[in-house]
From TrEMBL:
GO terms for molecular function: acid-amino acid ligase activity. This is Jasmonic acid-amido synthetase JAR1. The keyword Ligase applies. Residues 438-551 form the GH3 C-terminal domain. It comes from Erythroxylum novogranatense.
Amino acid sequence: MLEKMEEINPDRLIEEFEAMTKDAENVQRETLKKILEENGSAEYLQNLGLDGRTDPASFKACVPIVTHKDLEIHIERIVNGDSSSILTGKPVTTISLSSGTTQGKPKYVPFNDELMDTTLQIYRTSFAFRNREFPLGSGKALQFIYGSKHGKTKGGLAAGTATTNVYRNARFKNAMKALQSQCCSPDEVIFGPDFYQSLYCHLLCGLIFHHEIQVVFSTFAHSIVLAFRTFEEVWEELCSDIRDGELSSRITAPSLRTAMSKLLKPNAELADLIYKRCSGLSNWYGLIPELFPNVKYVYGIMTGSMEPYLKKLRHYAGELPLLSADYGSSEGWIGANINPRLPPESATFAVLPNIGYFEFIPLRGNVESNMEPEPLGLTEVEVGEEYEIILTNVGGLYRYRLGDVVKVMGFHNSTPELKFVCRRNLLLTINIDKNTEKDLQLAVEEAGKVLAEEKLEVIDFSSLVDMSTDPGHYVIFLEISGEASEEVLKECCNRLDRSFADAGYVSSRKVKAIGPLELRVVWGGTFQTILDHYLSLGSAVSQFKTPRCVGPSNNKVLQILCENVGKTYFSSAF
């Protein structure tokens, strides 16, 4: 039976959002009630003594705040095939895998139809606001999206990355058509057996439909930058394919060759046009609008660990707007970008009060204290303050520590608009120093300014706390776009050390309680090898985030980094 074509009414969606956010406190109460009623039979909730109560006070009194580690024993049973009501009222049939780039191994998280509903609601809401500012006509989207292998758990449940579970859902494609964002590539390319072959075919599909492309998208900014870095290397081969109507021999997967043969016809005129446009570019600046003249914007998650890729993405995008996609995680969604004109560095996300129940642990004054403050409700947070998010959702997570730190930038009606600050657990710390992913990113940006003077750039970076020396010290791994002089790299190293402004770090460095920062410059392609490692584990590029701090649990990544060190420098900044 054919699925009914979905229709989107952006004005009605905005009206619904406005009504809901004006009454966020009541909507939160009703959302919690609905979650607890639907899952009241779950063993996890039964054992906590809620006895059918669904009010926030009883919920907070009975249900503890948990991390993923606390739930592993329950999730393990689900993964192994126990179909009883463990975390949810209805049995879980699908498992999502997180990217695994933070802890070194993927986490298992339940996925169900109700989570798919919240995913589509977020997509529709942000599209309504986006389309008001940047209206789309009928056309296609060049989407660098990839489905990882959809495997089975020990107990026979479908298992894939969170993005794969979304992309494979029949409702996803229908929704994309309704959102005027239909992918120009066939499914065989999205779910191809080899990432590099799929990427090549995505680029080829984009060129074939170059006049129809209105949006360039990937889940993360990293994937878009990677796609156009690859284009720089293969563009002449792509032109040759289009000119001759024959697919490159680098594509060996039969499913891809069959699918592309239906699209690829000899077109010397198009090949000449692409060749001329690429030849006329200066250092590939403005490549995206040059290839796709009708594109309206570039879209993807560009906040947090994706910010370091914005400079290169802007280079490719030229004058095109960069729009940051919505805020969520493998565990569930939080908020939609309803201010799409804000640059990604300033992007905020309005929490949708009906997609989960949200609590916020205040972080001010909480760093030194052993006593954690009581979490606040969605409408109780204050502008300018930072919080850690606690999530209760429709997928069996109750008072779950997401591990994200957010800052409240304002309110839309009575729902907060959040800015992602950093992952709370990613700290470089040896003594009394506390540096987050954001602090690391800012330090690398400062080092990048030294390289920019030599017309070089940072390709990617990671870090390590090395306690094998006495005292311990920070190690920063940088991959650079070319050869830098000894003098420049020494200054990079000193600039990195001086750029960690945390008072605990500076004072510890001055009294030699922390040793000189070490810069290790790695060979070109090192971070590509790290990506390949994650792909070999079944991860999807759509979810890949470079690990910014490698610890003992990430020993394979650490091994790759250490085996590819070309030069080493120690700071003389203190």
